[in-house]
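Is this the right way to post structure tokens for a design question? Let me know if I should format differently. Anyway, here goes:
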């Protein structure tokens, strides 16, 4: 099966934008023109998917289940870094098989307060003993990922990175911990690769999308500018990549959760592009005619 798609995600001052086309292909056949390539995981986390559709859907459900169990045990959501590390650990045993999953996890961390457990609390000890083996392994991975994300946030804060929100906080006061706050973006592959960044594009159309995103993405974008940029990047990719096309889905993730924009056909972007070109040609023609009129009137005065 040919894996052709265009998915992208980037961070800006208003959160995270994720966009993807909707064409699913099988060899030279357009198997589905309206597939869903951005899959919600929980209220503040979505994942763009590239690879085999069945594998991506299955592992999305597995990840959503584990994150829901973690939330029920601890009373808070697992961070995006923890979710990415958990997914990478679950996928790594399948390295070298025909499993094909390439996901970009786009989330917003923070806004939750966790009560620190008491050292001699019998209730907490009983709950710890009653956990299942799978739950214990998941919690261990989650705790490791949380500590990694804390150290990464401290390093980012020291280096004064692109976003003030990315520096995050992990304070302890009055027996309570504040979870890291801000947008977060991770790429996870089926071989266990896990990468953190501010911009990712995955799929056969990604080289064309990067050419637009590299020149347009900046931290100070407004929401409408970011959405327009993501839509244009997908449009440019589908214009050159035969395995991408049909429509574009756009998701916006903020501190209030994710929201989905109305699905838009890429031909609408094509019509807008043609209209912009028509306006530019008209302006150039009018400018040229004005110059010619000025030259002719100047020649008449000399005569």
């Amino acid at each position: 099966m040919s894996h052709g798609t265009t998915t992208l995600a980037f961070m800006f001052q208003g959160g995270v934008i994720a966009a993807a086309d909707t064409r699913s292909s099988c060899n030279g056949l357009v198997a589905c023109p309206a597939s869903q390539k951005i899959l919600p995981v929980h209220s503040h986390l979505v994942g763009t998917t590239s690879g085999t559709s069945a594998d991506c859907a299955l592992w999305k459900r597995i990840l959503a289940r584990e994150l829901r169990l973690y939330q029920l045990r601890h009373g808070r959501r697992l961070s995006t870094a923890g979710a990415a590390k958990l997914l990478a650990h679950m996928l790594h045993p399948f390295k070298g098989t025909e499993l094909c999953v390439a996901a970009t996890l786009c989330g917003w961390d923070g806004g939750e307060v966790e009560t620190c457990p008491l050292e001699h609390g019998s209730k907490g000890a009983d709950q710890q003993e009653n956990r299942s083996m799978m739950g214990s392994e998941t919690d261990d991975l989650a705790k490791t990922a949380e500590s990694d994300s804390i150290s990464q946030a401290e390093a980012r804060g020291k280096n004064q990175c692109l976003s003030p929100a990315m520096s995050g906080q992990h304070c302890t006061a009055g027996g309570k911990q504040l979870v890291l706050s801000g947008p977060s973006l991770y790429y996870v592959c089926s071989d266990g690769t896990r990468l953190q960044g501010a911009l990712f594009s995955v799929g056969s159309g990604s080289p064309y999308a990067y050419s637009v995103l590299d020149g347009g993405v900046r931290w100070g974008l407004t929401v409408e500018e970011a959405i327009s940029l993501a839509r244009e990047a997908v449009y440019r990719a589908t214009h050159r990549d035969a395995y991408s096309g049909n429509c574009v889905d756009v998701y916006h993730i903020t501190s209030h959760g994710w929201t989905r924009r109305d699905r838009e056909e890429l031909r609408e972007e094509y019509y807008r592009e043609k209209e912009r070109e028509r306006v530019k040609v008209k302006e150039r023609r009018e400018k040229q005619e004005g110059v010619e009129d000025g030259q002719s009137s100047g020649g008449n005065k000399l005569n």
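Format looks fine. Someone answered above. Worth noting: The CA atoms of residues 82 and 147 lie 9 Å apart. The helical segments are 53-74, 80-91, 122-129, 133-158, 206-216, 223-240, 266-302.
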